[in-house]
Write a structure and sequence with these properties.
heterodimer; A: 309 residues; mainly beta; five-stranded antiparallel β-sheet; 3 helices; 18 strands; 11% helix; 37% strand; globular; B: 788 residues; 22-stranded antiparallel β-barrel; 6 helices; 51 strands; 5% helix
């Protein structure tokens, strides 16, 4: 199914543009400022939580961006005043905190503030922690390449339900195959309510959340693979940030209809004279479930038993 | 309102003060070969400045002294007719002119002095293209294309190949009023922007107003592209057609009642789908039902009831269809009914009623799990416009009238069906608008050399119910506005009203018989916006009206020009400068959501635009070698609060230099050649200067926060064509045919449409710059044209 669309899309685009072509070229771009980047996505899954601090690098630099070392990173629950310190792990730019059993690091409805002090400048960001939902079950869908009958693997249909009203819910659905995250830009699977905003409030996930954005044809599952799915809650701003991020990193595929390039927004605020910083801070409630890929569990076999009005 | 009515009366007063020692000669000027009315034919008294020209319906009216008059009728490419008339009373005279090549032998040139419209006409910033001229320009895949030819004129640019629409003097594409037989066409493109929707076989006359737009026209701020369809041969049946690389076209025209009523029907269809079907069937059985084509059908009927009355019905219907497991269609439909009536000898009325509908549809259906998505959008409008022309006397010609347009904007009817069969409706409310206008203008001669056209248009727009109006809180520019309140309005209830006076003024002073200076000022108002934040406009872009949150677009333009003809009008040349200020130009917040968003106004920004430039145009009209050179030096900028630090930045379609050379050469009766060279600056672009990582993804940022401060590489292209006309077959005398061989983009230039940045596929931390060219190769094509 997905392949049909993809193939036809390619065909149309090829015919339309007759012979459009892409070529990697050299472009002279004056060097930009070096800015602090705060990548802070904290959730309530058990284990160590990490906030990563780096800096920007020249756009054509081939290396990973440099770590920002020696910062002080603190997370504060503005509702109960509790503070959690994130400590840098041996000059990696990764600032870590492992909650104890008694810590309730992420409480639904609480507002959190991240404070960062680096090279004499202070920054802060706030994030509201929203509720999440979970994937109840999955169905596996055969994937065949065009013109062949050979089953190359399995796609997944997610059966899960959005939390019903009164506010909009936002989710980031992350999928793993045998513990490895599907991280292609096209499968940044984010959803407003069940995938269609207000009019899908309280419903079951609809495509693309339920199907098309889960994995690409290159990453399909094999029988007995372990498929793990996490549903991270987002607040509205974080959801919009991820929409913008996804647009930027997939925009190149749009050719004629690419949107005007824009800088990603940030919710990191510099204090007084500190220069602009980039990145994002989000607090998430997260559910996680794993399934073994069994071809017998088709979408149709699950569907009749899965009541989803 | 009342003031205007008084004003109109005041202007109309001279009507009753007609001098009695004059008589009026009036009638129609037509092509003697096929009965088509000739637009802009000259009618003048020999040796004097008493002159007029035929209007869009071929009608003329001229005041002359009683007694003997020598009247000349002339039209470019036609032999002139000189008539001795002894006039004692108002007289009507229809005149049929014959094309040069139909009346004379080769190599004989007819002296037709009046081919100096360039210098003598009131009009400036106006470009008229003859369909025969357009046909000589080499075109992509050999398809004669009106919109593409316009882009070779000074002051007109596009963002690149395949982009829909065109930009006139720094205006956005939504600022062009494209009229096909008086009805507006909202999307002039087939196949995104590769071909235009106008079938050249059915088109008679094309005129582009870049400035100095007469008061008669309104509703768009940048330009008017006035396309007139043929009426159809009213003397004999005629069949025209062509078999091309991408289209086939066929047209029939002929008399219904000889000299009284005629018709034309013309159709085109692409056949890529037919050609690819066998391949698809074999390789991809799932796509055997794939649809992939576009077509258009144009038709017109006219009936001349009597000398005083003539009616026209014309229609256009075109659609692009793509589909397999999904469907993606778009198209325009227009219908026009017109009635021409002549009151007496001097007052001409054209009443137009039109209907125009632009629609698109996206449908998607998954057979296996029964999920589906359907999205339909329309913009429909109905309009009535009575237009009067009053040929008062030798020195004054007046135009007055009005227009009412009723709009329905249907931004989206969207339904999602999920696996359990339930439907979710995402449809947005229909928005309604009523635009009305009245206008008056007068073309007045002051002495031998100086003349002016001055007028005023008043336009009024009602954004009205039934519907919901939203109000928003003010916020930092470039952030989504928060909803403050919403209010329901009943049908026809006004939500917001805007009114604008639009003064129009043109003046001409003839320095010599072969040179003149002209100046113009006009204000134009537009109550529609095209919402599009992509590099090229897409068929999916939504039109929305001016609302309580969105102000109408307003432009003021001044232009000054010098016009000169050389060597007895063999060459014409013009130099123009212009400055244009545009208010309330639409832009978008970062991360805007423009699709199916009922709060779309919260994501829109409005800013100021300015454009200025210098245009040079030299054209050779006669001889074996014809063509033109055009050069434009221009700048187009925008200033929008919240974008690019609130400073002026270059518009997406800013191209400082733009040069076109178009030439054709007729070697002999068998062979003729055409060529076309385009050279222009690259479009502006925003490039990032740093990269960083978020959640494992490498993203980029421009730390200067400036928009469009870089530029894509310059655009240039050469096209050539050769036309071979075979010897006539003696047994089939009426059958004429030719072969057109063309190569588009001869030297295989890969012009940058955009340069974008992406992570390298193998090493995602490495960002690379990629040049995207829409056309990556030269495109040869063969077309066979015939007529009988």
């Amino acid at each position: 199914m997905m392949k049909t669309i993809k193939y036809f899309g390619l065909l149309v685009i090829t015919l339309i543009t007759l012979s459009s072509c892409e070529k990697v070229i050299q472009v002279d771009v004056p060097e930009g400022e070096t800015l602090l980047v705060i990548d802070a996505w904290v959730n309530d899954l058990p284990g160590t939580q990490t906030v990563r601090l780096t800096t920007t690098a020249p756009v054509f630099d081939g290396n990973r961006t440099p770590a920002a070392n020696g910062a002080i990173v603190q997370l504060k629950d503005l509702n109960n005043g509790k503070t959690y310190s994130f400590i840098e792990s041996s000059n990696t730019g990764n600032y870590e905190f492992t909650p104890s059993v008694t810590d309730s690091l992420a409480v639904e409805g609480h507002i959190y503030q991240l404070n960062v002090f680096w090279k004499g400048n202070s920054y802060y960001a706030t994030s509201l922690l929203n509720r999440t939902t979970s994937v109840d079950t999955v169905g596996f869908d055969e994937y065949k390449e065009f013109g062949t009958n050979e089953v190359k693997g399995y796609f997944v249909w997610l059966f899960g339900r959005d939390q019903a009203g009164p506010v909009r819910d936002y989710y980031w659905v992350k999928s793993y195959k045998n513990g490895t995250l599907f991280n292609k830009p096209s499968v940044i699977n984010i959803s407003e309510d069940a995938g269609g905003g207000e009019s899908t409030d309280g419903l079951c996930f609809i495509p693309p959340t339920a199907y098309f954005s889960v994995m690409t044809t290159e990453d399909v599952l094999k029988e007995n693979d372990v498929y793990t799915v996490e549903v991270h809650s987002l607040n509205k701003d974080s959801y919009e940030y991820l929409v913008q991020l996804r647009t930027q990193i997939t925009n190149s595929q749009a050719g004629l209809f690419a949107t005007t390039p824009e800088n990603l927004r940030t919710n990191i605020k510099p204090v007084s004279t500190a220069p602009r910083a980039l990145g994002w801070f989000n607090m998430a409630k997260t559910s996680r479930k794993s399934f073994i890929c069994k071809p017998a569990i088709t979408i149709e076999s699950v569907f009749p038993f899965y009541y989803c009005p | 309102m009342r003031k205007i009515i008084y004003l109109l009366f005041l202007f109309a007063l001279p009507v009753w003060l007609v001098a009695q020692d004059k008589v009026t000669l009036s009638g129609y000027v037509k092509d003697g070969g096929n009965g088509e009315s000739l637009i802009g034919a000259n009618v003048y008294k020999q040796g004097t400045t008493i002159a007029t020209s035929s209007n869009a319906y071929g009608f003329y009216s001229i005041s002359l002294p009683k007694g003997k008059n020598t009247i000349v009728f002339s039209y470019i490419g036609y032999s002139q007719v000189i008539k001795e008339l002894d006039l004692s009373e108002n007289t009507s005279l229809d005149m049929e002119l014959l094309e040069d090549d139909k009346t004379t032998l080769d190599e004989v040139t007819i002296s037709s002095e009046k081919e100096d419209v360039n210098v003598k006409s009131m009009e400036m910033s106006v470009q008229k293209l003859d369909i025969k001229q357009i046909a000589k320009i080499p075109a992509l895949l050999g398809e004669v294309d009106i919109v593409k030819s316009i882009q070779l004129l000074p002051g007109v640019t596009t963002v690149g190949e395949g982009s829909g629409g065109f930009n006139v003097r720094g205006g956005n594409i939504d600022g062009n009023l494209i009229l096909l037989d008086e009805a507006p066409v909202f999307n002039s493109s087939h196949l995104f922007g590769f071909f235009s929707v106008f079938n050249p076989d059915a088109v008679k006359d094309v005129k582009l107003y870049k400035g100095g737009i007469p008061a008669q026209y309104g509703g768009r701020i940048s330009s008017l592209l006035d396309i007139r369809m043929k009426e159809g041969n009213n003397k004999k049946f005629e069949f025209n057609g062509g078999i091309g690389t991408i289209f086939s076209r066929f047209s029939i025209e002929g008399p219904i009642v000889k000299d009284k009523a005629s018709f034309i029907v013309a159709g085109r269809r692409s056949y890529i789908d037919v050609l690819t079907k066998p391949i698809l069937k074999k390789k991809v059985p799932e796509l055997k039902d794939a649809k992939f084509f576009f077509y258009d059908l144009t038709g017109k009927v006219n009936w001349r009831i009597n000398r005083k009355n003539q009616v026209f019905l014309s229609g256009y219907f075109g659609q692009d269809v793509f589909g397999a497991s999904f469907r993606f269609d778009w198209g325009n439909a227009t219908g026009t009914a017109r009635w021409n009536h002549i009151f007496g000898e001097k007052l001409f009325l054209n009443s137009t009623f039109y209907y125009s509908n632009y629609n698109y549809f996206i449908g998607f259906k998954n057979e296996s799990d029964k999920t589906a998505f359907d999205w339909a959008s329309n913009i429909i409008n109905y309009s009535f416009k009575p237009e009067f022309t009053y040929y008062l006397n030798q020195n004054n010609t007046m135009h007055f009238g009005g227009q009412v347009i009723y709009y329905q904007f249907k931004p989206g009817k969207a339904v999602v069906t999920n696996a359990s069969g339930e439907k979710n409706d995402f449809s947005l409310e229909t928005k309604y608008g009523l635009e009305s206008a009245i206008y008056f203008d007068n073309e007045q001669k002051f002495g031998q050399r100086f003349s002016m056209q001055y007028g005023l248009r008043y336009s009024l727009f009602n954004y009205m119910g039934e519907g919901t109006a939203y109000t928003y809180y003010d916020t930092i520019p470039n952030y989504r506005k928060r909803l403050k309140s919403e209010k329901k309005y009943g049908a026809w209830e006004t939500i917001k009203q805007y009114g604008n006076f639009e003064p129009r003024l043109s003046a001409k002073y003839e320095l010599t018989d072969a040179s003149s200076v002209k100046a113009s000022y006009n204000r134009t108002a537009q109550y529609l916006h095209l919402v599009s934040n992509t590099a090229a406009a897409t068929p999916l872009d939504v039109w929305i009206p001016a609302t309580n949150n969105l102000l109408p677009q307003i432009a003021d333009q001044v232009a000054l020009g010098y016009f000169q003809n050389f060597k007895e009008n063999m060459y014409e040349a013009s130099v123009e400068v212009y400055y244009k200020n545009m208010q309330n130009q639409l832009d978008y917040i970062d991360n805007s959501n423009l699709l199916l968003n009922k709060y779309i106004e919260a994501d829109l920004l409005q800013g100021q635009g300015r454009a200025y430039g210098f245009e040079l145009f030299i054209k050779k009209n006669k001889g074996k070698f014809t063509g033109w050179i055009s050069y434009t030096l221009a700048r187009t900028e925008r200033k929008v609060p919240g974008l690019s630090k609130g400073e002026w930045y270059f518009s997406r379609y800013d191209r400082p230099h733009n040069m076109n050379i178009t030439a054709s050469y007729e070697l002999n009766k068998r062979w003729s050649f055409g060529t076309n060279f385009v050279l222009m600056s690259g479009t502006p672009a925003t490039f990032p200067n740093v990269k960083y990582e978020v959640q494992g993804y490498t993203v980029t940022d421009n730390t200067t926060e400036k928009r469009n401060s870089f530029r894509n590489t310059p655009y240039h292209r050469l096209d050539i064509s050769a036309t071979w006309t075979p010897k006539k077959n003696e047994s089939r005398k009426r059958y004429k045919s030719n072969w057109v061989f063309s190569v588009y983009n001869v030297y295989n230039r890969k012009n940058a449409f955009t340069i974008f940045f992406r992570p390298n596929e193998d090493n995602p931390t490495q960002t690379e710059a990629v040049r995207y060219s829409v056309l990556g190769t030269f495109v040869p094509a063969v077309t066979y044209n015939f007529s009988f």
